[in-house]
Amino acid sequence: MSSRRNMLVAAGAVVGTGVLGEMGWRFTHPRKALQEPDGQSRSLVLAWPSPENDPVFIVAQERGFFSRYNLEITARPCITGHQAIDALTRGEVAGAAAAALSWLPRLHAGVPAKLVAGLSAGTFRLLVRKNIGITKIDSVVGKKIAVLNEEAADQRFFSVLLRRKGINPSEVLWRSVSEDRIDQALEGREVDGVVLHDPDGWQLLSENQSFLAELAGSTTGNYAQRVSKVFGLSSHFLSEDPKGALAVVLALRDACRWIEKHRDETAELLSSHMPDMNDDDVKHMLAHQPAPVHLLGHWLRDQMAQYADELKLIDLLPNELDSGAFSRSICQNVLHV
To answer: Of 290, 296, 308, which is closest to residue 122 (Cα–Cα)?
Structure first.
């Protein structure tokens, strides 16, 4: 009996210590309260690459997620993410969307902004001409690969992929080719392949299956689980109007969640903006893209740290940079007070 009593006392002490420990943790690490939108009306301009075929922007606008938070949003169309970031840097817009691979070097260089939401996974595709001996990623060494923009995230993604395989990206003969000449350059054997992202990549592949094949991309494997396009707000806007920042992020979050559950309806909305593709074409494209990925808070920070490590591989961030500390410095969770 004495032994049993001692065991019960000991167990009670352990439980008590655990409860006190939990209470102590909560006292020293209180849960942050969620911010609430203030309901005020706002008119904002956001820089957005190709908003006419971006599912997140289209859904947020046309399904009323912006208006739900009393936002009147005007998109400033851009061709590249760098142009969107440039507009934000000049103070012409409150926020910008761009690939993480474009954002991080610019933020390290001092662009006055914070990343607040991951929007979608990447759809980068490396398409090559068939029957020329390119059967795996290593085979592109010495081959002429077309890019629309040598600073684009498309090329950076495949440069990281090559570096991970132990290949120096400079061993690939990258060729700048304008969008309206891609077909001609491929058919005329001026280039052996091209890197693009959807919808351009999907359309080119689906219309030329007789002589093009997809060699690699971000639509399968580990990269399909990761966010690619990220939304950032200017530091000035975050400081001057935190409730406005909250409203924008909540609208984008809700739009992303809607897309997760309504893929067919998303395709219908998207196809109405893409005259070259019908509903079935768009549904087929979305079916061959990664599942929606959208991130906030520490999930966003973790993936930005991972991207920082990868950008070091291609000398776009310094090797000595602490990726974790850097990601914490460039991301902000506007949902918490």
So the answer is: 290
Q: How many CB atoms lie within 10 A of CB 54?
A: 21
Q: What share of the chain is helix, strand, coil (3-state, %, to 5)?
A: 50, 20, 30
Asked if residue 39 has pLDDT above 70, the reply is yes
Query: Mind giving me the DSSP string for 38-106?
Result: ----EEEEEEEESGGG-HHHHHHHHTTHHHHTTEEEEEEEESSHHHHHHHHHTTS-SEEEEEHHHHHHH
Phi and psi angles of residue 74, each rounded to the nearest 5 degrees, phi first: -115, 130
From CA 234, how far away is CA 266, in angstroms rounded?
29
CA–CA–CA angle 182, 183, 189 (5° rounding): 90
Give the pairing of strands 227-234 and 95-99: antiparallel
Q: At residue 175, what is the residue type?
A: R
Closest-CA residue to 47 (of 91, 90, 89, 77): 77
Instruction: Look up the pTM and report it.
Output: 0.88
Give Cα 264 to chain centroid, integer Å: 22
